Amino acid sequence: MQKLFGAIFVTFLASFIGTLVTIPSIPTWYAALNKPMLNPPDWVFGPVWTTLYLLMSVALYLVWKKGITKKNLYAVQLYMFQLVLNVLWSVIFFGLHLQHGGFGAIVTLWIVLLLTIIEFRKHSKQAAWLMLPTLLWVSFAAYLNFEIACMNN
């Protein structure tokens, strides 16, 4: 149980940091941007990300529950790296208002998420499946980021 709470803590810590950077820009800078037709209403993002972070936490737990060993260390490191990249995207896109830089960060995040899923699958198929919704949502977020960058150039 301790490892599950640890997985939840580290994952939601990243969420919290990203949220601190994101929230101030929503009603001001982000509200003023031109957005694509498929852009969801702002209220959708909180529940979606909360659900994804919960799924990610369980995925980490499934890989980590037997301890961190030479066998699964790379998978856990990739997971932590994708959390850092997730926060970094928030800082670049929402904090610094760099739409093109945000797109570069989110593409890097997508690649690391895919690598994380591949590595997680070696240790737990369920963990890999639990990470898939995040990859799909980040794919959609990358599309939105790209379109916003193009529309507001």
Task: Indicate the topology.
Layout lengths: L1 H21 L3 H7 L9 H23 L8 H23 L3 H25 L1 H27 L2
Helix pairs in contact: 1-3, 1-4, 3-6, 4-5, 5-6
The number of helical segments is 6
Q: What is the end-to-end distance?
A: 48 Å
Q: Residue ranges: pLDDT <50 for 5 or more in a row?
A: none
Into which percent range does the helicity of residues fall?
over 70%
Report the average pLDDT across residues: 97
Q: How would a crystallographer describe the biggest sheet? A: none
Approximate strand percentage: under 5%
Radius of gyration: 16 Å
Provide structural commentary.
This protein has 153 residues and is an all-alpha fold. 82% of the residues lie in helices and 0% in strands. It contains 6 helices and no strands. It starts with a helix and ends with a helix.
Task: Describe what is shown at a glance.
The chain has 153 residues and is an all-alpha fold.
Which features would summarize this protein structure in a list?
single chain, 153 residues, mainly alpha, 6 helices, 82% helix, 0% strand
